[in-house]
Structures are given as structure tokens and as C-alpha cells.
Input
Amino acid sequence: MPSTALSVAAESGPAHYAVPDVGLFFAPPTAPVSTEGRGDDPGAAAATPDAEPALPSPLARVLAFFAIVVGGVSGALIGYAFVDLQCDEGCGFRAGLGAVAGAILAAIGVAVITVLALRAMSEWHEIQRSADDDLPVRPPD
Output
């Protein structure tokens, strides 16, 4: 994960800490980062040229997007029904606000779950790849 150098003044002199850069919301996971040959600056880490990103498959990302949309639509229906059941008549604006609030809350909740699931899938695939790389090659019989 890319990091940003953070300098903190201490009594014995400045101290440097690497702070993970998580992007605006969630940055996609990447392959391991090499810091060899970069000196003592922990913030100068760069990805190795042969490193491939550990992004989930396009199908998984499309399914996650549609799951978020379905969650938002479901939340809108629930929010609308919840407010509409509590009103006698003339509550169109309030019911609309309930629908919008329900859609936003449900979409955010489903988005958090899908991001966690996609990251777990990416990590699992990365572990599988590294385990396959560590296996000894057996000569053919």
C-alpha cells in the first residue's frame, strides 16, 4: 500500500513515520511494494515493475455495482413505505425524503459490505498466487 511520510518533531530530533494512503474512500489493493534501494525514506516506496494489481475480476466488480444499486432501490422502497404508513394523507414530500434517506443508507451499507468482500477476495487470490509460487517444481517423470 502506498504510504506518505509523516515527520514528527520529538525531543531527540525529527521522527519519520509511514502513514498509509487510503485514497478518497477505499483504494484498490495492490501487489506488494518493494522498498529496496530507496534509502532510508519510508515514503519513497514504489511498486516493482513486474507487480500486477490485485484487483478483483471485472465480473465481480459489476456484480458488486448491481448489488449496491439493488440495495439502494430496496432501501428507497422501505423508506417510502415506512413514512407513508405513518401519514394519513398529503405526505408525498415526506415519503420522498424517506425514500431518499432509505436509498442512501442502504446503498452505503451494501457498498461497505461489497468493498470488504472484494478486498477479501483479492487478498485470498493473492495468498493463493503466493502459495503457488512457493511450491517446489517437480521434474516430469
Q: What stands out?
A: The chain is about 50% helix and 15% strand. The chain has two domains: 3-47, 58-134. The chain has a mean pLDDT of 75. The first strand starts at residue 3 and ends at 10.
